[in-house]
Amino acid sequence: MVAKGTVQHPIWVRFLSETERKCGELHSSKFYLGQSLGPRARITRRRKLITMNTKKITEKNMGVDVSKLTLDLHLLPDNKTFHVNNNHAGIAKAMARLIKIQPARIVIEATGRLEKLFVCACVEAQLPVVVVNPLAIRRFASACGIIAKTDALDAKVIALFSERIRPDIRTINDKESQFINDLLVRRAQLSDMCTMEKNRLSIMPEALFDSIQQTIAYLEQEKTMIEKKLDQSIKNNVQYNEKLNILKSIPGVGDITVYTMLGQLPERGKINTREIAALVGVAPMNKDSGSYRGQRRIRGGRRSVRKVLYMATLSAIRCNPVIRAQYQRLMKSGKLFKVAMTACMRKLIVIMNAMLRDGKCWQ
């Protein structure tokens, strides 16, 4: 029986409180369930949450929340927050402080290119910056029971994510490589717009055909100009010369595939077979539970790289003897077309990764 007037918390809250009492509080930063306390708040009692690592934290981790106009930065374990404008002047101030602090890791969300200016500044200052998927941060916050959302609180959550999860610090493109990546993104945008206009030819009245065709011609002209800039940028970049020759030696691999590998996959040649397949999104993922064995499917990965790799694989199954042999063997064994294509895509990206790692051309 529960005494009258006693607050009976859910079992999981009582368990967390008892566990936290045993482990002790890790640092001074506190996170609470629900929204701010007040007369209209749904949760009016503060409940401290358990963190996942009970070791004393000594390294410094910085979380950065990005918006269009501002940056909120939170430092753990010092539990300090500061705020700067998301422009060249504001980021320069942030860099000056970060260079003095020398954090072990700076974690920032991928927010539709709003983070690019800050990330480029960190790369130039040789600071350990990590760009993470916003969904991972949100799920981490939910797992911690953090429901409220403000810019300052988001920066704290990102810093805590950095401290507890410790995401790997991966290679980030330098300024020249980033410009090549931007050109690739722009080319993809023009291609998508051109496809949309071509599709409208089948649904719009004939009176509008001239307008649509003029738009298509303009988009094609712009795409050609972007491709010329791509060619020139790649040729002017000395560090790409050897890699360019290696990738172009593979039968079925064209210029756009090569440029995409160089501009949008900076990890190329530095990670193993399984990692490169998972990074591109062509690794089959398990879906098992108990005695149930689900069908393996590809999930996640870099969609822009995968799209280009798909077109390269279509070409490779016609003119590349290795890829063609695997495709024919899989089709003869009764595999579906998409299954065979995915397997060939995986083989092709693994071959390219191995060739770049070893510095050897196609033989």
Written description of the protein model:
- The chain has 363 residues and is of the alpha/beta class.
- It has three domains: 61-165, 2-Layer Sandwich (Nucleotidyltransferase, domain 5), CATH 3.30.420; 177-235; 237-286 and 297-363, no CATH class.
- The protein has 13 helices and nine strands.
- It has helices spanning 11-23, 88-101, 116-124, 134-143, 151-165, 175-200, 209-236, 241-248, 255-264, 273-280, 303-319, 321-332, 337-358, and strands spanning 61-66, 70-76, 80-85, 105-109, 129-132, 284-285, 288-289, 292-293, 297-298.
- The strands form three sheets. It has a five-stranded mixed beta sheet.
- The chain starts with 10 loop residues before the first helix and ends in a 5-residue tail after the last helix.
Secondary-structure map with pairings?
Layout: H1 11-23, E1 61-66, E2 70-76, E3 80-85, H2 88-101, E4 105-109, H3 116-124, E5 129-132, H4 134-143, H5 151-165, H6 175-200, H7 209-236, H8 241-248, H9 255-264, H10 273-280, E6 284-285, E7 288-289, E8 292-293, E9 297-298, H11 303-319, H12 321-332, H13 337-358
Parallel strand pairs: 1-4, 4-5
Antiparallel strand pairs: 1-2, 2-3, 6-9, 7-8
